[in-house]
Amino acid sequence: MISVEINQKPLSDEAITLYLDAGWGTPADYTDAEAVFGKAFDHSHFITARDSQKLVGMIRFLSDEAHDTQVIECVVLKSYQRQGIGTQMLDALVQHYGTTDIYIQSTADAEAFFEKRRFKKHHLIGLSYRR
Q1: With contact defined as beta carbons under 8 Å apart, do 4 and 49 qualify?
Q2: What is the spatial distance between Cα 86 and Cα 73, in angstroms, rounded to a whole number?
Q3: Nearest residue to 96 (alpha-carbon basis) of 1, 2, 12, 7
Q4: pLDDT, tens only, 62-112
Q5: What pTM was computed for the model?
Q6: N or C: which end of the chain has fewer CB within 10 A?
Q7: In the predicted model, what is the mean pLDDT of residues 23-40?
Q8: If 0-12 CB within 10 Å is exposed, 13-18 middle and 19+ buried, where does residue 45 land?
């Protein structure tokens, strides 16, 4: 049975398993994971999905809990997709943070998933600065 939890920070290794399963890099990309994830995860909120103790899905997001919520990652293990887990996690996000504007940057492949769950597509121009 899948359980969805609010603000239960996953272990770095668990998150890396999700990322690799999604095709987000190779194991070599995560060699200094604890240092990087420790800082990023300490400043993030989470909604996690577990099958018993196994992490099978995760939404990582930032929120001021008043105006804006920004989803950084929404990922479910491939072998658990199409079972409603992503929907359950998004429902929990909306239930707990729906009084804020929720923003998600998505790949083209995942846009339909979010649009089916009442998220609207916006074409915004973004700027970024990298050292």
Answers
A1: yes
A2: 11
A3: 7
A4: 999 999 999 999 999 999 999 999 999 999 999 999 899 888 887 778 888
A5: 0.88
A6: C
A7: 83
A8: buried
Contact call for residues 49 and 88 (beta carbons, < 8 A)? yes
Instruction: Tell me what the mean pLDDT of segment 107-118 comes to.
Output: 82
The tokens for 52 are: 């018993």
CA atoms in the 13 A half-sphere facing the CB of 48: 20
Enumerate long-range contacts of 90-94, CB under 8 Å, 24 or more apart.
90/59, 90/114, 90/117, 92/4, 92/6, 92/47, 93/47, 93/59, 93/61, 93/69
Separation of alpha carbons 46 and 51, rounded Å: 16
Helix (H), strand (E), coil (C) string for 40-103? HHHCCEEEEEEECCEEEEEEEEEECCCCEEEEEEEEECHHHCCCCHHHHHHHHHHHHHCCCEEE
Residue found under tokens 């929720």:
102
